[in-house]
Amino acid sequence: MNTSGLRLRYLFDRYYNQTATPQERDELLAAINAGITDDELAHHMQQAWDGLHQGEELFDKAKSDAILKNIIEKGEDDEPQKKGNTLLLWGKIAIAATLMVFAGIYAYHWLQPAKLAKPQVAVVKRPAHDALPGGNKALLTLANGKTIVLDDAQNGTLAKQGATIVKKTADGQLIYNTSAIAAANPTPSINTIATPRGGQYQVILPDGSKVWLNAASSLRFPTFFTGKTRQVEITGEAYFEVTKNAAMPFKVKTGRADIEVLGTHFNVMAYDDESIMKTTLLEGAVSISSGSFSAKLKPGQQAQIKTNGQSKVVDDVDVDDETAWKNGIFQFRDANVGTILRQASRWYDVDVVYRGQLPKREFTGRISRNVKASELLNMLDYAGIKLKIEGKNIVVL
């Protein structure tokens, strides 16, 4: 197989950025298997390393270069077990995968196409205990007090409340369809959907607005909207795409603030165990108020409200960082270790146990939320943060 250097660089870039198709991953492995030299591999790894986002590395340049040199040298020492369908340079591509961890930006699990035999070379040690990622799990509480476990309920119609029909879809959506409101039933019922730790869910409200709930969150809302406002209440974290209706503004109430919009996309992070509540605007406009603080946000701005009442608006926020969870990604930028572990605790349904002190440092990184907890911890381990899983606990060593 004769794969050009330009094509190899393209394949490496696609892999590092998590955009490679299965066919492109197979092509990259086949190119390496077909005889790419150590020098060529090192060259393309170096190019991919240099091409990562500048100014976001975990280490300074001198240390980064030393780590990269060590990775390449280690790869040159790996000996393949056998030829044929076994990946001859598996150790090197696995090490190349760890390059993303060191860069602290696009960490992801290593390549492992099903048709290739798994080699004996192991770069990352897997723990005896692990925790699985979360999924579409939630509990719906109807106005009459009846509860429905959505992850167990069959797809289709779940309930009828007055003029509103509640349906569940196969892809983790709860849909409220409301017909013409009968005069005999002018008062809407109130429903609540709550996700556990390790859960997430999406709700389409009666007005067509969409709400994504993160783990350990809840949304309280009426079965149809009436009056002058459309009001809901949340705990935890939720992403909103609100349907425009100038005659009926949409309001979100949290424990710390009230948010009002006409039609817009925004994210609210309001967990009780987080010291800062964050409201991040992606498009449109929102007004937020908390005590004496009030602000009108523009796209790219974030309102921050601390538990002690201090508040401010931050400009030029990376909205992808704030909404990555909705797209199935852990994404951290200058995040302290405590913040990362709280997210892990909520998503993997585990507790954090402190046997040692957390390092006072910040971390930048990115990894799929579909991986097991051990892979997230491995990413942190490469950055010098020592953790392990014991049963239902993440232990800080």
TrEMBL record:
What domain of life does the UniProt record list for this protein's source?
Bacteria
Membrane-spanning ranges: 89-111
Q: Could you state a single Gene Ontology molecular function term? A: sigma factor antagonist activity
Q: Which residues form the Protein FecR C-terminal domain?
A: 330-396
Where is the FecR protein domain positioned along the sequence? 192-286
**Pfam families in alphabetical order:** FecR, FecR_C
Q: Which InterPro entries match?
A: FecR, FecR_C, Ferrdict_sens_TM
Q: Which of UniProt's keywords are assigned here?
A: Membrane, Transmembrane, Transmembrane helix
Would you tell me the protein name for this molecule?
A: Iron dicitrate transport regulator FecR
Q: Which organism is it from?
A: Mucilaginibacter pedocola
